[in-house]
């Protein structure tokens, strides 16, 4: 998956140049020209890295960095003309991964961004036969407990069965027929096509939201548990 980089820079020419250079390295880039735009963009999209200037038209990049670090795990790299020692130290104190001063060498910048992105690569979500967790959604099949973003979920036994089958086969298509066979319990409580569809819809409504999708429908076949934060 291509990494997505947000560039917060009010110099339009420099911003366009950075976007072009990074796109040639196969990154996806987006530009914001002030603090307000950056906050709005980050609220509606997910980024793997933020390149941030200190002097912005409507505020300080330092304050914006503090906001980003409080709300997101996205790494921040300062790219700025502010080269005073106290500025550099302040940037690192706020949690920046690196502090690069202008003028800069584009090849060195590229290499530094590679290092930051590699260092901050998210590990695959932890999952096993007894549970699943990606930090946002946590499922314990032994305790029949599920938590989404710190909130306890009420999930039915059949929904847990569906989740366990899907997570055990994460990344692979689980056919509707297989689910129907697995959901036929020892008491022969029959689960039909309609009931399966209803259970799947309710389960999705409980564990998913606009920013977190876990179950993908493969029309005409079945479902895939992606277990991926979008």
State the gist of this model.
Pfam families: Response_reg (PF00072), Trans_reg_C (PF00486). This protein has 230 residues and is an alpha/beta fold.
Structure, described:
- This is Stage 0 sporulation protein A homolog.
- One of its GO terms (biological process) is regulation of DNA-templated transcription.
- Residues 127-227 bind DNA.
- Keywords: DNA-binding, Phosphoprotein, Transcription, Transcription regulation.
- InterPro entries: CheY-like_superfamily, OmpR/PhoB-type_DNA-bd, Sig_transdc_resp-reg_receiver, WalR-like, WH-like_DNA-bd_sf.
- This protein is α/β, with parallel strands linked by helices.
- The protein has two domains: 4-119, Response regulator (Rossmann fold, 3-Layer(aba) Sandwich), CATH 3.40.50.2300; 126-229, Arc Repressor Mutant, subunit A.
- It is built from eight helices and 15 strands.
- It has helices at residues 12-24, 35-44, 61-71, 85-93, 106-119, 157-168, 176-182, 193-207; strands at 4-8, 28-32, 49-52, 55-56, 59-60, 76-80, 98-101, 126-128, 131-133, 137-140, 145-148, 151-152, 173-175, 212-218, 222-229.
- The strands form four sheets. A five-stranded parallel beta sheet has the order 2-1-3-6-7, sandwiched between helices. The chain has a five-stranded antiparallel beta sheet with strand order 8-9-10-11-12, covered by helices on one side.
- Strand 10 (137-140) and strand 11 (145-148) form a beta hairpin.
- It is elongated, with a radius of gyration of 22 Å.
